[in-house]
From TrEMBL:
Belongs to the type IA topoisomerase family. It comes from the Bacteria. CDD domains: TOP1Ac (cd00186), TOPRIM_TopoIA_TopoIII (cd03362). It catalyses: ATP-independent breakage of single-stranded DNA, followed by passage and rejoining. This is DNA topoisomerase. Residues 157-594 form the Topo IA-type catalytic domain. It comes from Planococcus wigleyi. PROSITE patterns: TOPO_IA_1 (PS00396), TOPO_IA_2 (PS52039). Keywords: DNA-binding, Isomerase, Magnesium, Metal-binding, Topoisomerase. It is an enzyme of class 5 (isomerase). InterPro entries: Topo_IA, Topo_IA_2, Topo_IA_AS, Topo_IA_cen, Topo_IA_cen_sub1, Topo_IA_cen_sub2, Topo_IA_cen_sub3, Topo_IA_core_domain. Its EC number is 5.6.2.1. The keyword Nucleotide-binding does not apply.
Length: 702
């Protein structure tokens, strides 16, 4: 029997098929018999999540309406369904699986890939099939063939599925209960908005809110330093005394003590030069690449992941969703063998410092599921490189240059520390002189980068003319996060937690979210309008501020809660924990929220009535009856004359896109909206369109 290979998406299936002789069919690819598959094989694919959890109303009609009385939403068992618009592809997969005795999970090599595969497999109802796991880090033909020759059993895969499924259900429970609870309580205070709550997204928003509160609460204070400008035989330089005073008087007293006037003679008492080295940077994980790309080109983390996924599918880079910065001797071997070819790609030849592996880069003990992001064995042609989009080229070269740096020399510089004495008061100066550029020549400096001022040549006991002055400065507030810094903030959020045990847990699990999910979380909180990003600077919105004021003091605001849950989820992935125990804990947490949140919101000082810009109660006059007003009520927009027979209403969510009050206002007053981005069609494809109101019904205009 031909085995059935299930890929996560069509592009992945196509990449697998390119390693074999194959023919494209409707919804699958047929692989011709060869040494690896003597009878041939079928490759089919999902379209992301083909299978999803059912909506609450599928379990109990009382959960169809948003009502505090109907909470909590805690089904006895959890039911799944084929996602809307994806039944045809699911049917093809089901038919193929029922025809075979061996199924190969070839979805992405991570927990989510395991979840996608088993969600589909169990939904088909298939039983007693032999299941194998493909686990590779590159889509190059030889790596694909090697992977299919060395398929793993599915024992670890099943555990990862149990972990991912428990995470999926827990996120669903927290979202369904928390979102309704907070939205309904805030509606009672006059806010007609939906407040989405998430196990990871909510504490992330709160950390951004905390930074903004620090900035707002910051009161700048003056400080005073004593600076000397010195004229030596070979040039001018500056130095500072060891003083940072809050009062100007303190600096004046120190100068008076040494009887120093504005212009004095000084003497160079010490010139100490030390040679220093900076080794090449470590290889990139996804988060370090996202941070670098945001710093250099202002790319959002989500854009970096999307572009890197494309480069992976073009077989130019290794698997991008990795959290390690190390490789194994196997990867190092092929990289070392092709250094000269990689150099030609960026037209930057340099003498190879060493082709011996260094533990800074090559360490098998630091490589678990995936290794660092590196170029594949495939050397792209000049034509293929020229065919890359600008963002693809930038990111490919960033990976390439970082990898090449591993074979380059250290950056060498001389650090000179100078002490200048003026009437017994020491002034200190540090200067830097570049000796050998080394690996830094691979990374051209940014245009706005300022060159460090160089020191003139100085001799000990040299006499210099000095001009001494008191300089006033102001303390600076913390800086707001850039979008790239959010990734690092989520990874290192343990330092914001006071409890030592919680800090250690957060450090161990690397903070909020995972390497693969953090950029998606940031996009989610942007979509829910909790944060805004302008010129790469992240700000909390008024809606985000109200959410954070509501959850303050609650476990939902703390990264610690997510850390403890994540720790137990990892135990499930290792076979040391139980999904049932974990979900029972989530149930208790939700009940605790229902019991405590109403009182907490009152304790947090939220007034009985809240006002939020753009969150109107009355949105616009009703376009149908001309008498009533369109208002936001319980997840939809309705006319206030409904009781008197006016049936005009608008859905809050249309084709999986949440409609804002402003868009409803456009429909009522102008008959159409501007272009709205992000609608999702029945077949799962995203598109943009205007909404038009005709005879009280919504239509699309392209």
């Amino acid at each position: 029997m031909k085995p059935v290979i299930v890929a996560e998406k069509p592009s992945q299936a196509k990449a697998y098929a390119e390693a074999f002789k194959s023919v494209k069919r409707d919804g699958y690819i047929e692989v011709a018999p060869d040494a690896i598959f003597p009878e041939g094989a079928y490759i089919t694919w999902g379209i992301g999540h083909l299978v999803e959890l059912k909506e609450p109303k599928a379990y109990d009609p009382k959960w169809a309406r948003w009502s505090l009385a109907a909470l909590p939403i805690l089904p006895d068992t959890y039911q799944f369904q084929v996602a809307r618009g994806k039944a045809q592809q699911f049917g093809i997969i089901k038919k193929l699986i029922f025809q075979t005795d061996t199924v190969i999970n070839a979805c992405d090599v991570d927990r989510e890939g395991s979840n996608i595969f088993y969600s589909i497999y169990y939904q088909t109802g298939a039983k007693n099939k032999k299941i194998k796991r493909l686990w590779i880090n590159s889509l190059e033909a030889d790596e694909v063939r090697k992977g299919f020759q060395e398929l793993r059993d599915n024992q670890q895969d099943l555990l990862l599925y149990q972990e991912a499924k428990a995470r999926q259900i827990s996120d669903w429970l927290v979202g369904m209960n928390g979102s309704r609870l907070y939205s309904l309580l805030l509606q009672e205070k006059g806010i007609r908005e939906v407040f989405a709550i998430g196990r990871v997204q909510t504490p992330t928003v709160f950390l951004i809110y905390q930074r903004e509160k620090e900035i707002e609460a910051f009161v700048p204070e003056p400080f005073y330093e004593i600076e000397g400008i010195f004229d030596a035989e070979k040039g001018r330089y500056k130095g500072k005394a060891k003083l940072r005073a809050k009062e100007r008087k303190e600096a004046e007293e120190l100068l008076a003590k040494h009887t120093i006037a504005a212009k004095e003679e000084g003497v160079v008492t010490q010139v100490k030069t030390t040679e220093k080295r900076t080794p090449p940077p470590q290889l990139h994980s996804l988060s370090t690449l996202q941070a670098a790309a945001n710093r250099k080109w202002k790319y959002s983390p989500a854009k970096v992941l999307s572009v890197m996924q494309g480069l992976y599918e073009k077989k130019l880079v290794s698997y991008p969703r990795t959290d390690t910065q190390h490789i194994t001797p196997g990867e190092f071997s092929y990289l070392a063998g092709q250094v000269e070819k990689y150099q030609k790609l960026i037209d930057m030849p340099f003498p190879i410092a060493s082709k011996a592996p260094k533990k800074r880069f090559v360490d098998s003990s630091k490589v678990q599921e995936h290794y660092a992001i590196i170029p594949t064995k495939t050397i792209p042609t000049a034509r293929k490189l020229e065919g890359l989009a600008k963002d693809e080229r930038n990111l490919y070269e960033e990976v390439l240059r970082t990898t090449l740096a591993m074979f380059h020399k250290d950056y060498r510089y001389a650090e000179t520390k100078v002490t200048t004495d003026v009437k017994g008061l020491a002034f200190f100066t540090t200067g830097k002189t570049e000796l050998e550029k080394g690996w830094k020549e691979l990374f051209p400096p940014a245009k706005e980068a300022k060159a460090e001022p160089s020191l003139p040549e100085l001799r000990e006991q040299e006499r210099v003319k000095s001009k001494v002055d008191i300089k006033e400065g102001m303390t600076m507030p913390p800086k707001p996060y850039t979008e790239g810094q959010l990734i690092a903030m989520m990874k290192t959020c343990g330092k914001f937690v006071e409890d030592v045990e919680d800090t250690e847990i957060l450090k161990e699990i690397e903070g909020l979210g995972t390497e693969a999910t953090r950029s998606g979380i940031i996009e989610t909180i942007k979509r829910h309008e909790y944060i805004s990003v302008s010129k790469n600077i992240v700000s909390i919105t008024e809606k985000g501020r109200i959410l954070c004021q509501s959850i303050e003091g609650n476990l939902l605001s703390s990264p610690s809660m997510t850390a403890k849950w994540e720790t137990y989820l990892k135990k499930i992935g290792r076979g040391e924990g139980s999904a049932e125990v974990f979900l029972a804990t989530i149930g208790k947490f939700i009940q605790k929220l229902l019991d405590e949140v109403p009182g907490q919101m009152q304790k947090n000082g939220l007034p009985a009535q809240l006002a939020m810009p753009n969150a109107k109660d009355e949105i616009a006059p009703c376009p149908r009856c001309k008498t009533g007003m369109i208002v936001s009520r319980r997840g939809s927009y309705n006319c206030t004359e409904h009781a008197n027979g006016c049936k005009q209403s608008f859905p809050a969510i249309f084709l999986k896109k949440r409609l804002t009050a402003k868009q409803i206002e456009y429909l009522c007053t102008k008959g159409k909206t501007p272009v709205i981005k992000g609608f999702v069609s029945k077949n799962g494809k995203k598109f943009n369109a205007k909404l038009v109101l005709e005879d009280g019904k919504l239509k699309m205009e392209f």
